[in-house]
């Protein structure tokens, strides 16, 4: 995640809920710096609503005016400042020099080691205020927003719960020579390789591939595809008999990378498909999912979706930063699946490799660690909804849940 993020929007736009999810995605340690003062019953109610929505797991600091001091004294975990507009109001009502405070805030933000997400309000889109103080506040708020936005690495505007990225500026982070550099990897530790252990789900169980246990059931499931369509974009197969599939498993699919899993239906105990981790790079924090082969019985089913979710969840729980999906650029089905599962398209590597005597341009997709908590929530909600249906039918599409998660929405939008 970028170091300094400014999130703006109108009243009740969903900006605070979105900001909370951005900070929650950075890990369990997080600090909420509140600038509001409970000056009347309405503000008391609003503060209580915010506390209830964000739940446990936050360390709270209340600082209505000395925001620079609060940030300097809390640079041990990601922080959420909510909000700059109230901070400015507090300064103006106290007769303090808000311009000097703003300069100090920008200096402090530039010195922070841990990420900071700041929430503010857009107050200049309405009618001209009728009194001088309100007009002065509107002008000052616009200046505060412009100043912080100019030095922030990322600026997002939330409208009707939908986040619109206004700026994502790699140039905002420079070294002592003035060269643009990436965000610091503060506190990150390379993860362990994924273990060769089963993964339990609601509909499926993923077992480390064992030819003795799985080859016969997989061969039967795969041969239900009488046209052998499932093998077109794989560099091996189809296999004429169980013995041929077994030999391939023993030669290619029993190592640590790729690490293959058989996907079993928990109701029947039968293996219906394969998937693997591959190109496992703990030092880079990158891991790929691939060798995906779903039999007709597994395709377009909640079981297939849950299998992919379980593999993602294990990778991110281990601490990987990047989860990749790559496929032949001509494999339209695989590309649709990647997008449905929440992967973001990153481009096509032309003539990346070849297989079965033909060229392959490779389409790249990925999910990053800061995107994962929102997607995980979408998968979990979707799976729970399907599990509640006696016929395992989806009442709403996964795409709808993913879109909602990407918008940073909860069940109820906050201000």
Question: Which secondary structure elements does this structure contain, and how are they paired or packed?
Answer:
Layout: E1 4-9, H1 15-24, E2 31-34, H2 41-54, E3 59-62, H3 67-72, E4 79-82, H4 84-93, H5 98-111, E5 116-119, H6 132-151, E6 154-159, E7 162-168, E8 199-200, E9 204-208, H7 211-222, H8 242-252, E10 259-265, E11 271-281, E12 286-294, H9 302-318, E13 322-328, H10 332-340, E14 344-355, E15 358-368, H11 372-388, H12 398-406
Parallel strand pairs: 1-5, 1-6, 2-3, 2-4, 4-5, 12-13
Antiparallel strand pairs: 6-7, 8-9, 9-10, 10-11, 11-12, 13-15, 14-15
Helix pairs in contact: 4-6, 5-6, 7-8, 9-11, 11-12
Descriptive labels:
eight-stranded mixed beta sheet; 12 helices; 24% strand; elongated
Short description:
The chain is built from twelve helices and 15 strands.
Strand content: 15-25%
Low-confidence stretches: 409-415
Order of helices and strands: EHEHEHEHHEHEEEEHHEEEHEHEEHH
Strand count: 15
Arithmetic mean pLDDT: 89
Strand line-up in the sheet with most strands: 8-9-10-11-12-13-15-14
Instruction: Summarize the biggest pleated sheet.
Output: 8 strands, mixed
Q: How would the global form be characterised?
A: elongated
Radius of gyration: 25 Å
**DSSP summary: helix tally:** 12
How far apart are the first and last residues' alpha carbons, in Å? Answer: 23 Å
Which structural class do the helices and strands define? alpha/beta
Helix content: 25-40%
